[in-house]
Amino acid sequence: MCGPVFNEFMKEAVKKYGGGPFRVPPGGHFISFAPEIEAKLEEAGIDPTARAETVSLEGFCALARALDKR
Q1: Closest CA to 40 of 68, 17, 15
Q2: Closest alpha carbon to 38 in 48, 28, 29
Q3: Which residues contact 66 (CB under 8 A, 6 or more apart)?
Q4: What are the mean pLDDT values of the chain's consecutive 10-residue runs (70 residues total)?
Q5: Residue 41: which of 20, 15, 59, 23 has the closest Cα?
Q6: DSSP character string of 23-59
């Protein structure tokens, strides 16, 4: 449901402000996930769409164990 709304918003924003490549701000990091990471998140009981700050320490430990199995 949010995808089409965001798409329309971005079309209008690009018309008004222009577009270009995304630049990571100073101090930021661009991270991409391999497709199998989503499965590991689910295996650890973590919602793949959850914000990192909402994941418990136990959740991160479970993820580390799941990733260690690779």
Answers
A1: 68
A2: 48
A3: 40, 41, 43, 44
A4: 79 86 78 74 84 82 81
A5: 59
A6: -PPTT-------HHHHHHHHHTT--TTS-GGGS-HHH
